[in-house]
Write a structure and sequence with these properties.
By secondary structure, this protein is an all-alpha fold. It has 18 helices and two strands.
Length: about 425
Protein backbone atom coordinates (compact mmCIF):
# COMPACT_ATOMS: atom_id res chain seq x y z
CA UNK A 1 0.00 0.00 0.00
CA UNK A 2 1.26 3.48 -0.89
CA UNK A 3 0.50 6.60 1.15
CA UNK A 4 1.44 10.21 0.54
CA UNK A 5 3.98 11.30 3.16
CA UNK A 6 2.96 14.95 3.09
CA UNK A 7 -0.66 14.04 3.73
CA UNK A 8 0.35 11.73 6.61
CA UNK A 9 2.47 14.46 8.21
CA UNK A 10 -0.46 16.85 7.93
CA UNK A 11 -3.05 14.52 9.48
CA UNK A 12 -1.05 12.86 12.28
CA UNK A 13 -1.11 14.64 15.67
CA UNK A 14 1.70 16.99 16.60
CA UNK A 15 2.78 14.53 19.28
CA UNK A 16 5.80 14.01 21.51
CA UNK A 17 8.24 13.25 18.70
CA UNK A 18 7.69 16.57 16.94
CA UNK A 19 7.86 18.35 20.28
CA UNK A 20 11.18 16.61 21.00
CA UNK A 21 12.60 17.70 17.64
CA UNK A 22 11.48 21.29 18.16
CA UNK A 23 12.83 21.51 21.72
CA UNK A 24 16.21 19.92 20.93
CA UNK A 25 16.84 21.93 17.79
CA UNK A 26 15.69 25.21 19.34
CA UNK A 27 17.89 24.60 22.39
CA UNK A 28 20.98 23.99 20.31
CA UNK A 29 20.38 27.13 18.25
CA UNK A 30 20.06 29.11 21.50
CA UNK A 31 23.57 27.90 22.35
CA UNK A 32 24.68 28.56 18.77
CA UNK A 33 23.50 32.17 19.19
CA UNK A 34 25.37 32.42 22.48
CA UNK A 35 28.63 31.21 20.91
CA UNK A 36 28.24 33.39 17.81
CA UNK A 37 28.35 36.55 19.92
CA UNK A 38 30.91 35.46 22.53
CA UNK A 39 33.92 37.18 20.97
CA UNK A 40 32.02 40.44 20.55
CA UNK A 41 30.69 40.30 24.11
CA UNK A 42 34.18 39.64 25.50
CA UNK A 43 35.86 42.16 23.18
CA UNK A 44 36.09 45.11 25.63
CA UNK A 45 37.77 42.86 28.24
CA UNK A 46 40.14 41.28 25.70
CA UNK A 47 41.06 44.65 24.20
CA UNK A 48 41.95 45.88 27.68
CA UNK A 49 43.93 42.73 28.62
CA UNK A 50 45.92 42.55 25.39
CA UNK A 51 46.33 46.31 24.88
CA UNK A 52 44.72 46.35 21.43
CA UNK A 53 42.82 49.08 19.63
CA UNK A 54 39.46 48.48 17.94
CA UNK A 55 40.80 48.14 14.41
CA UNK A 56 43.19 45.37 15.48
CA UNK A 57 40.30 43.28 16.77
CA UNK A 58 38.42 43.39 13.46
CA UNK A 59 40.27 40.40 11.92
CA UNK A 60 39.33 38.26 14.94
CA UNK A 61 35.64 38.96 14.39
CA UNK A 62 36.06 38.53 10.63
CA UNK A 63 37.70 35.12 11.12
CA UNK A 64 34.66 33.79 12.96
CA UNK A 65 32.32 35.11 10.29
CA UNK A 66 34.46 33.73 7.45
CA UNK A 67 34.34 30.34 9.13
CA UNK A 68 30.57 30.64 9.44
CA UNK A 69 30.29 31.49 5.76
CA UNK A 70 32.20 28.38 4.72
CA UNK A 71 30.48 26.26 7.34
CA UNK A 72 26.99 27.30 6.31
CA UNK A 73 27.50 26.33 2.67
CA UNK A 74 29.41 23.16 3.51
CA UNK A 75 26.98 22.15 6.25
CA UNK A 76 23.93 22.68 4.06
CA UNK A 77 25.38 20.56 1.26
CA UNK A 78 26.43 17.82 3.68
CA UNK A 79 22.96 17.83 5.22
CA UNK A 80 21.34 17.33 1.81
CA UNK A 81 23.65 14.36 1.13
CA UNK A 82 24.04 12.47 4.42
CA UNK A 83 21.06 13.69 6.41
CA UNK A 84 20.06 16.62 8.60
CA UNK A 85 20.63 14.70 11.85
CA UNK A 86 24.30 13.64 11.48
CA UNK A 87 25.25 16.98 9.92
CA UNK A 88 23.65 18.91 12.78
CA UNK A 89 25.11 16.76 15.56
CA UNK A 90 28.58 16.87 13.99
CA UNK A 91 28.41 20.65 13.71
CA UNK A 92 27.34 21.01 17.34
CA UNK A 93 30.13 18.85 18.76
CA UNK A 94 32.70 20.61 16.59
CA UNK A 95 31.79 24.18 17.53
CA UNK A 96 31.48 23.16 21.21
CA UNK A 97 35.07 21.86 21.18
CA UNK A 98 36.48 24.89 19.39
CA UNK A 99 34.65 27.32 21.68
CA UNK A 100 36.04 25.66 24.79
CA UNK A 101 39.57 25.72 23.32
CA UNK A 102 39.20 29.48 22.70
CA UNK A 103 39.50 29.98 26.46
CA UNK A 104 43.20 29.06 26.06
CA UNK A 105 43.90 31.86 23.55
CA UNK A 106 46.80 34.13 24.53
CA UNK A 107 46.45 36.73 21.82
CA UNK A 108 44.43 37.86 18.80
CA UNK A 109 46.19 35.50 16.34
CA UNK A 110 45.46 32.36 18.35
CA UNK A 111 41.93 33.51 19.08
CA UNK A 112 41.35 34.36 15.42
CA UNK A 113 42.37 30.86 14.28
CA UNK A 114 40.17 29.22 16.91
CA UNK A 115 37.23 31.45 16.03
CA UNK A 116 37.70 30.58 12.35
CA UNK A 117 37.35 26.90 13.26
CA UNK A 118 34.43 27.63 15.60
CA UNK A 119 32.64 29.46 12.82
CA UNK A 120 32.69 26.34 10.63
CA UNK A 121 30.55 24.49 13.17
CA UNK A 122 28.34 27.45 14.03
CA UNK A 123 27.57 28.05 10.38
CA UNK A 124 26.89 24.40 9.57
CA UNK A 125 24.34 24.03 12.38
CA UNK A 126 21.78 26.63 11.25
CA UNK A 127 20.74 25.38 7.76
CA UNK A 128 20.42 21.79 8.98
CA UNK A 129 18.45 22.84 12.04
CA UNK A 130 16.12 24.95 9.90
CA UNK A 131 15.60 22.20 7.32
CA UNK A 132 15.07 19.50 9.97
CA UNK A 133 12.38 21.47 11.75
CA UNK A 134 10.70 22.58 8.52
CA UNK A 135 10.47 18.97 7.32
CA UNK A 136 9.05 17.64 10.59
CA UNK A 137 6.34 20.24 11.04
CA UNK A 138 2.84 20.17 9.51
CA UNK A 139 2.31 22.93 6.98
CA UNK A 140 0.12 25.03 9.26
CA UNK A 141 2.90 25.18 11.89
CA UNK A 142 5.95 25.28 9.64
CA UNK A 143 6.56 29.02 9.40
CA UNK A 144 6.13 29.45 13.16
CA UNK A 145 8.46 26.54 13.91
CA UNK A 146 11.15 27.91 11.60
CA UNK A 147 10.69 31.32 13.19
CA UNK A 148 11.16 29.77 16.65
CA UNK A 149 14.42 28.12 15.59
CA UNK A 150 15.86 31.27 14.05
CA UNK A 151 14.67 33.53 16.85
CA UNK A 152 16.62 31.22 19.18
CA UNK A 153 19.79 32.91 17.87
CA UNK A 154 18.98 36.32 19.45
CA UNK A 155 17.63 34.54 22.55
CA UNK A 156 21.06 32.93 22.88
CA UNK A 157 22.71 36.29 22.35
CA UNK A 158 20.47 37.89 24.97
CA UNK A 159 21.24 35.19 27.54
CA UNK A 160 24.92 35.36 26.63
CA UNK A 161 25.04 39.12 27.13
CA UNK A 162 23.36 38.83 30.53
CA UNK A 163 25.72 36.04 31.63
CA UNK A 164 28.86 37.70 30.28
CA UNK A 165 28.02 41.04 31.91
CA UNK A 166 28.01 39.16 35.23
CA UNK A 167 30.75 36.58 34.59
CA UNK A 168 33.49 38.74 33.05
CA UNK A 169 34.00 41.08 36.06
CA UNK A 170 33.90 38.10 38.46
CA UNK A 171 35.55 35.19 36.61
CA UNK A 172 37.13 36.79 33.54
CA UNK A 173 36.30 36.42 29.86
CA UNK A 174 37.82 32.92 29.57
CA UNK A 175 35.09 31.45 31.78
CA UNK A 176 32.50 32.53 29.22
CA UNK A 177 34.19 30.44 26.52
CA UNK A 178 34.38 27.42 28.80
CA UNK A 179 30.65 27.66 29.45
CA UNK A 180 30.00 28.26 25.75
CA UNK A 181 31.75 24.98 24.91
CA UNK A 182 30.50 22.75 27.72
CA UNK A 183 26.78 23.44 27.29
CA UNK A 184 26.47 22.52 23.56
CA UNK A 185 28.77 19.50 24.04
CA UNK A 186 26.38 18.10 26.64
CA UNK A 187 23.33 18.80 24.48
CA UNK A 188 25.06 17.26 21.46
CA UNK A 189 25.50 14.00 23.36
CA UNK A 190 21.81 14.04 24.25
CA UNK A 191 20.95 14.58 20.58
CA UNK A 192 22.94 11.50 19.57
CA UNK A 193 20.58 9.41 21.68
CA UNK A 194 17.25 11.12 21.05
CA UNK A 195 17.16 13.22 17.86
CA UNK A 196 15.41 11.57 14.86
CA UNK A 197 16.18 12.12 11.17
CA UNK A 198 13.88 14.05 8.83
CA UNK A 199 11.09 11.92 7.31
CA UNK A 200 11.29 13.98 4.12
CA UNK A 201 14.99 13.16 3.83
CA UNK A 202 14.30 9.41 4.19
CA UNK A 203 11.57 9.69 1.53
CA UNK A 204 14.02 11.30 -0.89
CA UNK A 205 16.49 8.39 -0.59
CA UNK A 206 16.18 4.92 -2.07
CA UNK A 207 16.45 2.02 0.38
CA UNK A 208 15.16 3.98 3.36
CA UNK A 209 11.52 2.80 3.24
CA UNK A 210 11.86 0.70 6.41
CA UNK A 211 13.51 3.54 8.33
CA UNK A 212 10.78 5.91 7.22
CA UNK A 213 7.99 3.53 8.20
CA UNK A 214 9.50 3.03 11.66
CA UNK A 215 9.81 6.79 12.06
CA UNK A 216 6.18 7.36 11.08
CA UNK A 217 5.08 4.66 13.52
CA UNK A 218 6.90 6.55 16.28
CA UNK A 219 5.07 9.69 15.25
CA UNK A 220 1.76 7.81 15.26
CA UNK A 221 2.65 6.39 18.70
CA UNK A 222 2.03 2.77 17.78
CA UNK A 223 2.18 0.28 14.92
CA UNK A 224 -0.34 2.20 12.91
CA UNK A 225 1.31 1.47 9.58
CA UNK A 226 1.93 -2.18 8.62
CA UNK A 227 5.11 -3.54 7.06
CA UNK A 228 3.69 -3.22 3.55
CA UNK A 229 3.15 0.53 3.82
CA UNK A 230 5.28 2.62 1.45
CA UNK A 231 5.42 6.40 1.80
CA UNK A 232 5.90 8.63 -1.21
CA UNK A 233 6.33 12.35 -1.24
CA UNK A 234 4.97 14.86 -3.71
CA UNK A 235 8.20 16.80 -3.26
CA UNK A 236 10.69 15.90 -6.00
CA UNK A 237 13.05 13.24 -4.67
CA UNK A 238 16.06 14.37 -6.64
CA UNK A 239 17.21 17.50 -8.35
CA UNK A 240 20.48 18.78 -9.73
CA UNK A 241 21.54 19.43 -6.16
CA UNK A 242 23.59 22.23 -4.64
CA UNK A 243 24.23 25.46 -6.49
CA UNK A 244 23.26 23.95 -9.86
CA UNK A 245 19.67 23.49 -8.74
CA UNK A 246 19.56 26.82 -6.94
CA UNK A 247 20.59 28.60 -10.14
CA UNK A 248 18.34 26.55 -12.43
CA UNK A 249 15.61 28.39 -14.31
CA UNK A 250 12.74 27.91 -11.81
CA UNK A 251 14.76 29.19 -8.84
CA UNK A 252 17.35 31.54 -10.33
CA UNK A 253 15.61 34.86 -9.71
CA UNK A 254 14.59 33.89 -6.19
CA UNK A 255 18.14 32.77 -5.42
CA UNK A 256 19.82 35.96 -6.65
CA UNK A 257 17.51 38.22 -4.68
CA UNK A 258 17.73 36.12 -1.54
CA UNK A 259 21.52 36.23 -1.73
CA UNK A 260 21.47 40.01 -2.07
CA UNK A 261 19.01 40.36 0.80
CA UNK A 262 21.02 38.10 3.10
CA UNK A 263 24.27 39.97 2.28
CA UNK A 264 22.82 43.36 3.16
CA UNK A 265 20.87 42.13 6.18
CA UNK A 266 23.87 40.39 7.71
CA UNK A 267 26.07 43.42 7.12
CA UNK A 268 23.59 45.44 9.20
CA UNK A 269 23.04 42.69 11.78
CA UNK A 270 26.69 41.87 12.47
CA UNK A 271 27.62 45.51 12.18
CA UNK A 272 25.58 45.82 15.38
CA UNK A 273 26.33 42.49 17.04
CA UNK A 274 30.09 42.67 16.52
CA UNK A 275 30.64 46.30 17.42
CA UNK A 276 27.82 47.33 19.74
CA UNK A 277 29.68 46.68 23.04
CA UNK A 278 32.78 48.44 21.69
CA UNK A 279 30.70 51.31 20.28
CA UNK A 280 28.85 51.84 23.56
CA UNK A 281 32.01 51.63 25.66
CA UNK A 282 33.58 54.19 23.34
CA UNK A 283 30.68 56.51 24.09
CA UNK A 284 31.61 56.41 27.76
CA UNK A 285 29.34 53.68 29.12
CA UNK A 286 30.84 51.34 31.77
CA UNK A 287 31.87 47.90 30.48
CA UNK A 288 28.98 46.03 32.10
CA UNK A 289 26.43 48.44 30.60
CA UNK A 290 28.13 48.28 27.20
CA UNK A 291 27.88 44.47 27.23
CA UNK A 292 24.25 44.67 28.36
CA UNK A 293 23.60 46.74 25.26
CA UNK A 294 23.81 43.47 23.33
CA UNK A 295 21.21 42.01 25.67
CA UNK A 296 18.81 44.86 24.85
CA UNK A 297 19.52 44.51 21.14
CA UNK A 298 18.75 40.79 21.24
CA UNK A 299 15.70 41.32 23.44
CA UNK A 300 14.31 43.70 20.85
CA UNK A 301 15.19 41.12 18.20
CA UNK A 302 13.14 38.40 19.90
CA UNK A 303 10.10 40.67 20.08
CA UNK A 304 10.60 41.88 16.51
CA UNK A 305 10.96 38.34 15.17
CA UNK A 306 7.79 37.13 16.88
CA UNK A 307 5.78 40.13 15.71
CA UNK A 308 7.31 39.84 12.26
CA UNK A 309 6.34 36.18 11.98
CA UNK A 310 2.76 37.03 12.93
CA UNK A 311 2.61 39.96 10.52
CA UNK A 312 4.24 37.90 7.76
CA UNK A 313 1.56 35.25 8.05
CA UNK A 314 -1.17 37.87 7.98
CA UNK A 315 0.12 40.35 5.40
CA UNK A 316 2.78 38.39 3.47
CA UNK A 317 6.45 37.73 4.21
CA UNK A 318 7.91 40.06 1.57
CA UNK A 319 5.69 42.97 2.60
CA UNK A 320 6.56 42.45 6.27
CA UNK A 321 10.28 42.22 5.54
CA UNK A 322 10.11 45.45 3.54
CA UNK A 323 8.46 47.24 6.46
CA UNK A 324 11.05 45.97 8.93
CA UNK A 325 13.91 47.07 6.66
CA UNK A 326 12.50 50.59 6.43
CA UNK A 327 11.84 50.70 10.16
CA UNK A 328 15.40 49.65 10.98
CA UNK A 329 16.88 52.09 8.49
CA UNK A 330 14.84 54.93 9.98
CA UNK A 331 15.92 54.13 13.55
CA UNK A 332 19.60 53.87 12.65
CA UNK A 333 19.49 57.05 10.59
CA UNK A 334 17.91 58.94 13.51
CA UNK A 335 20.49 57.53 15.95
CA UNK A 336 23.31 58.53 13.59
CA UNK A 337 21.95 62.07 13.40
CA UNK A 338 21.71 62.31 17.20
CA UNK A 339 25.28 61.05 17.68
CA UNK A 340 26.55 63.50 15.06
CA UNK A 341 25.08 66.36 17.09
CA UNK A 342 26.64 65.46 20.44
CA UNK A 343 27.32 62.81 23.11
CA UNK A 344 24.70 60.36 24.33
CA UNK A 345 22.93 61.90 27.37
CA UNK A 346 22.84 58.64 29.35
CA UNK A 347 22.85 54.85 29.32
CA UNK A 348 19.09 54.42 29.09
CA UNK A 349 18.87 56.97 26.29
CA UNK A 350 21.33 54.83 24.32
CA UNK A 351 19.36 51.64 24.99
CA UNK A 352 16.11 52.87 23.43
CA UNK A 353 17.40 52.91 19.81
CA UNK A 354 19.41 49.74 20.58
CA UNK A 355 16.20 47.94 21.58
CA UNK A 356 14.16 49.22 18.64
CA UNK A 357 16.84 48.60 16.03
CA UNK A 358 17.32 45.07 17.38
CA UNK A 359 13.63 44.40 16.82
CA UNK A 360 13.79 45.54 13.22
CA UNK A 361 17.16 44.13 12.16
CA UNK A 362 16.82 40.70 13.78
CA UNK A 363 13.23 40.57 12.59
CA UNK A 364 14.52 40.97 9.03
CA UNK A 365 17.06 38.18 9.51
CA UNK A 366 14.51 35.74 10.91
CA UNK A 367 12.10 36.58 8.12
CA UNK A 368 14.73 35.91 5.47
CA UNK A 369 15.42 32.41 6.82
CA UNK A 370 11.71 31.64 6.86
CA UNK A 371 11.31 32.98 3.33
CA UNK A 372 14.21 30.85 2.07
CA UNK A 373 12.78 27.72 3.73
CA UNK A 374 9.43 28.38 2.08
CA UNK A 375 10.79 29.09 -1.40
CA UNK A 376 13.10 26.06 -1.81
CA UNK A 377 12.01 22.39 -2.27
CA UNK A 378 13.26 19.50 -0.11
CA UNK A 379 15.89 18.45 -2.65
CA UNK A 380 17.83 21.68 -2.15
CA UNK A 381 16.30 23.30 0.94
CA UNK A 382 19.28 22.98 3.28
CA UNK A 383 21.66 23.94 0.46
CA UNK A 384 19.44 26.90 -0.45
CA UNK A 385 19.35 28.19 3.10
CA UNK A 386 23.04 27.41 3.49
CA UNK A 387 24.20 29.23 0.37
CA UNK A 388 21.99 32.25 1.05
CA UNK A 389 23.43 32.50 4.55
CA UNK A 390 26.94 31.93 3.18
CA UNK A 391 26.66 34.86 0.81
CA UNK A 392 25.18 36.80 3.71
CA UNK A 393 28.24 36.05 5.80
CA UNK A 394 30.19 38.00 3.21
CA UNK A 395 28.33 41.08 4.40
CA UNK A 396 29.10 40.10 7.99
CA UNK A 397 32.83 39.80 7.18
CA UNK A 398 32.75 43.24 5.56
CA UNK A 399 31.15 44.64 8.71
CA UNK A 400 33.83 43.06 10.92
CA UNK A 401 36.75 44.36 8.86
CA UNK A 402 35.31 47.81 8.21
CA UNK A 403 33.67 48.46 11.58
CA UNK A 404 36.82 48.84 13.65
CA UNK A 405 38.37 51.24 11.15
CA UNK A 406 35.20 53.36 10.83
CA UNK A 407 34.65 53.52 14.59
CA UNK A 408 38.23 54.72 15.06
CA UNK A 409 37.52 57.81 12.93
CA UNK A 410 36.21 61.12 14.28
CA UNK A 411 32.41 60.80 14.65
CA UNK A 412 32.95 57.13 13.81
CA UNK A 413 29.85 55.92 15.68
CA UNK A 414 27.54 58.15 13.64
CA UNK A 415 29.30 57.24 10.40
CA UNK A 416 29.03 53.51 11.13
CA UNK A 417 25.31 53.77 11.83
CA UNK A 418 24.89 55.58 8.52
CA UNK A 419 26.63 52.70 6.72
CA UNK A 420 24.27 50.21 8.35
CA UNK A 421 21.30 52.36 7.34
CA UNK A 422 22.31 52.07 3.68
CA UNK A 423 22.67 48.29 4.05
CA UNK A 424 19.09 47.98 5.30
CA UNK A 425 17.82 50.10 2.42
CA UNK A 426 19.60 47.78 -0.03
CA UNK A 427 18.01 44.77 1.69
CA UNK A 428 14.60 46.46 1.38
CA UNK A 429 15.11 46.75 -2.36
CA UNK A 430 16.09 43.07 -2.67
CA UNK A 431 13.26 41.49 -0.66
CA UNK A 432 10.58 43.39 -2.57
CA UNK A 433 11.21 41.14 -5.58
CA UNK A 434 11.58 37.69 -3.94
Amino acid sequence: MIRDLDEALETLPFGRLRTLVLVLVTSIIVLDGFDIQLAALAAPAMLAEWGLDRAAFGPVLAASLAGMAAGTALGGSIGDRVGRRPALIGAVLFFATMTALSALANGPVTLGLLRLATGLGLGAAVPNATALVAEWMPRRWRSYAVMLVIVAVPIGGMLGAALCAWMIPVFGWRACFILGGAAPALLGLIMIITLPESPQFFASRDGRADHLRQLMNRLARGNRFDNGMIFRTSVPAAGKGGVAELLSAPLRVTTWHLWAGFFAAMLALYGCLNWLPVLLSGLGLPMDQAVRGSMWFNLGGVAGAVMGAWAGGRFGAARCLSALCLMGAGILALAAAILALGPVPGAMAAMVPVLLSGGAILGVQVGLYGLAAARYPTSCRAAGIGWAATLGRGGAVVSALAGGWVLAQPSGAALWLAVLTLALLFCWRAVRTV
